[in-house]
Every structure is written in structure tokens, then in C-alpha cells.
Amino acid sequence: MLKDITLGQFFPAKSPLHKMDPRGKLLLLILIIVFIFVAGNAFSLGLVTVFLIAAMFLSRVPIKIYLKNIKSIWVIILLTAVLNALYVDEGTVLCKFWVFQITTGGIQRAIFMAVRIVLLILASAMLTYSTTPTALTDAIERLLSPLKYIGLGTAVHTLAMMMTIALRFIPTLIEETEKIMNAQKARGADLESGGLLKRMKALLPVLIPLLVSSFRRAYDLAEAMECRCYNGGKGRQRMKQLHFGLVDLFGGLISLLVCAGVIVLNILL
What is the pLDDT along the chain (269 residues), one digit of tens a residue? Predict the structure, then answer.
């Protein structure tokens, strides 16, 4: 299950998404996330879905890599859909048991929420798959740079660095967890059988070494940054400068057209 989580990894490829400016990709991601929830009917949500599927193919990242993220959170998607189906009482009642009832409105809301969660995961994964952690750090820092005029310049750089390091270490911690779990299983630990409470207790021998390993990695990273004379963003220069190009202009126009289409479909249908 943990191996299916690929969020935070960068997949090098020669695609239009990889060539886009990371600042533009961040802004477009925020825009698409907003319009995923603005979409109010099946047609407008379908338009956003088609747009994201087309972007997935343009990224030239294997589709199975995207699907691994969905596989890793299917329980959350299913739980969200079930809760929406049970607690939304709009439309015609299809069946009723005890204090719960399933209606046509509840089924529609459940499908909508499940699709929205899937689209959110795919859109976020698309950003990390096509953007290096260094470029993502620069993009966040550049977008938040106006805050330096109110005395938050150092805080902006620190925040960008913290977010990128956290994102970068997701795959590393997942790999470390897999190694610890395999080592515990080789020693005879049973981590997969029994009830929920028993499984949670069985994970204690995994969490403690993982916590120790995380602190060790954090200490090693801090020492490596200190040895390289890292002193924050003040006076820091960048090897690669960020520039908007035709790919960013074209991607922004397509995204704006999709958002306009969502608004039109919401109004007309």
C-alpha cells in the first residue's frame, strides 16, 4: 500500500508540462482546484475531468503512476462517498433502513465528491511529477515575494524551503517505513492480521524506529546545509532563472477557457 504513494516524486520527461514555468503551474493548480468545486453539474465537472486527463497524457508520465495515488486513498474516497450518500436527503428516496436513507440526491452528491477528490489528487500529483523540488521552492518564494515589503522576506523563504523539504521527503519516509516493516516481519511481527486496535498496537515497533530515523535524517540535512554555508534567502542567487514562455501563455489560455466553460455550463444546464 505504501509503495503506491508516489506524491512528491519528480519524473523527468520532455513534455509541455515539464517546460512550463513552475510559478504558472502553481497558479494554474490553484485555479483548477477552485473550479473543481465551482463545477455544479455533471457537464461542467466532466469538462474539468477531460481537461485534466488531457494534461495527464501531455505530461508523458505513465498513467499507472497517477492511478497508484488513487489506489492508495481508495478507502478515504469510499468513506466520503458513503457518508454523502447516507446524509444527503435530497431527491427521491431509493431505500431506507434504520435512521438512514439513500436518495437520488445523495447518490449524485456521493459521485460528485468522489470524482472531486480524485481530480484533486491527480492535479496535485501532476504538479509534483513535472516540477523539481528546487523549482517548486523558487516558485513558492517568488509568488510570495511581495510579503517582503511588510518585513516577511526571511519568513517567505523559510516557508518555501520547509514545504519543499517536506514534499521531497515523502517518498523517502515511505521507503524507510517499508524497510522497517519488512524487517519487523522478518523477525516474526504480525502487522496485517487482527482487528483495528491490534494492528495499531502492532505498528508501535514500526513508528518508534521511523521517528528516530526521521530525526536522524533531519539532523544530517541540517548539518549538510550548514556545511554548505546556507544562511537563508538573503543575498542568495539562483543558477536557473524563471521565465514565462509561450508554453505558459498557451497553458494559461486553455485553462481560462476551461474555467469559462465551467461557468457557462453551470448557468445554462
Answer: 555 556 567 888 888 898 999 989 999 999 999 999 999 888 999 999 999 999 999 999 888 888 887 877 888 888 888 888 887 777 777 777 777 778 888 888 888 889 999 999 899 888 888 888 778 878 888 888 788 777 776 777 777 778 778 777 877 887 888 888 888 888 777 777 766 677 777 777 788 888 888 888 888 888 888 887 777 666 666 667 778 889 999 999 999 999 999 999 999 88
Which residues are registered as beta bridge partners of 102?
Answer: 95
The Cα angle at residue 172 between residues 214 and 156, in degrees rounded to 5: 75
The H or E element containing residue 93 is: strand 93-97
- Following DSSP, what letter does each residue of 183-236 receive, concatenated? HHHHTT---SSS-HHHHHHHTHHHHHHHHHHHHHHHHHHHHHHHHTT---STT-
d(CA 77, CA 72): 10
Alpha carbons 244 and 104: distance in angstroms, whole number: 46
Distance CA 45, CA 115 (A): 9
Whether the full predicted model's pTM is greater than 0.85, yes or no, is no
Q: Which three cell numbers stand for residue 207?
A: 513508528
Distances in whole angstroms, Cα of residue 167 to Cα of each of 47, 135, 137, 161, 203: 29, 13, 10, 10, 23
